[in-house]
Amino acid sequence: MSRIYNFSAGPATLPLEALEEAAGQFVDYENSGMSLIEMSHRGKQYDAVHSETIALLREILQVPDTSHVLLLQGGATLQFGMIPLAFLKSGMSADYITTGSWAKKAVGDARTVGAVSVAWDGADCSYSRMPAQQELTLNPNAAYVHLCSNETIGGIQWQSFPDTGTVPLVCDMSSEILSRPLDWEKIDMVYAGAQKNLAPAGMALVIMSERLASMARKDLPAYLRYDLHIEGNSLYNTPPTFVIWMTQLTLKWIKSIGGMPELERRRDEKASMLYDTITNSGGYYRSPVDQASRSTMNVVWRLPSEELEKQFLQQAEQESMSGLKGHRSVGGCRASIYNAMPVEGVKALTDFMREFMKKNG
Ligand code: PMP
Fold first, then answer.
1. How far does CA 17 lie from the centroid of its chain?
2. Is residue 26 left, alpha or beta, with left meaning phi > 0 and alpha meaning psi from -120 to 50?
3. 102 catalytic per annotation
4. 184 carries an active-site annotation
5. Counting atoms of ligand 1 from 1, which one is nearest the CA of 173?
6. Is 196 a catalytic residue?
7. Which residues lie closer than 8 Å to 300 by C-beta, 6 or more apart?
8. pLDDT tens digit at each of 361 positions of the chain
9. Interhelix angle 241-257/259-279, nearest 10 degrees
10. Which of 57, 85, 94, 317 has CA 20 to 30 A from 253's CA?
11. Active site residue: 172, 188, 245, 301, which one?
């Protein structure tokens, strides 16, 4: 077997241990004579997977008992719409912090539902940094404040979350969930598409305080009702059983390596290796983002010319490193270094970057 280093932004590399565990059990799950993905979601064996996945999420992210953990279909994109539908009631307004492509998509959906106020827009700085607290125009009566904690395309990340007072803070953490501990005193909701730090595509993890959940509208079609998902423990309808099983295996792997503290240690090691390589390249590699907002998950950089970028990407591919092309909307290069990317993968990439610069600098 030869696995390459996959730096894709999502779907993304998953822990080899989780993939192998699933492969070994795929056809005959724990001697049941069938695959887990063929089983009823109301059966005992699937139920054990479902419950353990939620329990592990609670444990690793230290989710308080007063918050709900939901596993929903539709990816993060469905949350862009579900959030305003549930919480942006008539006569109210919601604050959105516009920091890049993904935050803009969330604002766009909210505008189709109700009144939105943009608390800050990074257009003037080409979305190269996150705002400081004093730059935000926050409405103390807003239904909620929405932000994207890590802009997957732009490569910027909130280092700490803004203070929103008593207004619920809602965070799209799709490309960084499980990369840092969260302060649940400050955050009422996080959501994340599964296909980066958790599992294959097909699910969103939603963690929501009871305070926020109690405000959700109920006069909506069933799937859009958070209260029904909470009441049914994410079994209101047929859940994405395969994705949830893979999430469980990823979480077991996280526990086996030492949980959140070890994830943080590896995150910092990998991000520093890449940013140091960029910084020490004498301007050959150039980071388009502000140093204080650099993402630890999606590292973006440019080369001196588009032609060199093309060659860089082609040669990286030949060296078994894939997925390094920047998003089509911005160009350049991007390495997504989620939890499952081994330190050796980033070592191989930074060695290659130095070598490429030596030959082409
Ligand atoms: N938010 C962010 C920050 C993302 O990176 C993405 C996907 N790349 C999404 C939302 C949309 O997620 P999904 O494709 O799961 O709907």
1. 21
2. alpha
3. yes
4. no
5. 3
6. yes
7. 154, 155, 287, 288, 289, 326, 330, 332, 333, 334
8. 789 999 999 999 999 999 999 999 999 999 999 999 999 999 999 999 999 999 999 999 999 999 999 999 999 999 999 999 999 999 999 999 999 999 999 999 999 999 999 999 999 999 999 999 999 999 999 999 999 999 999 999 999 999 999 999 999 999 999 999 999 999 999 999 999 999 999 999 999 999 999 999 999 999 999 999 999 999 999 999 999 999 999 999 999 999 999 999 999 999 999 999 999 999 999 999 999 999 999 999 999 999 999 999 999 999 999 999 999 999 999 999 999 999 999 999 999 999 999 999 8
9. 80
10. 317
11. 172
Do 301 and 278 meet the contact criterion of CB atoms below 8 Å apart?
yes
Q: What is the CA(283)–ligand 1 centre distance, in A?
A: 31
Q: Is 360 touching ligand 1 by the criterion CB < 6 Å?
A: no
Domain with CATH 3.90.1150.10 in the chain: 258-360
Q: Which fold has domain 258-360?
A: Aspartate Aminotransferase, domain 1 (3.90.1150)
Query: What's the topology of domain 16-255?
Result: Aspartate Aminotransferase; domain 2 (3.40.640)
Phi, psi of 147 (to 5 degrees): -140, 160
Task: For residue 77, report the distance from its CA to the centre of ligand 1, in Å.
Answer: 6
If you write DSSP's letter for every residue of 263-328 in order, what string do you get?
Answer: HHHHHHHHHHHHHHHHHTTTTSSB--S-GGGB-SSEEEEB-SSHHHHHHHHHHHHHTTEE--BPPT
Among 146, 170, 175, name the best residue to mutate to test ligand 1's pocket (greatest count of ligand atoms within 8 A of Cβ).
Answer: 175
- Structure token pair of residue 167: 């207004």
Predicted TM-score (pTM) of this structure: 0.98
Structure-block tokens of residue 355: 């070598």
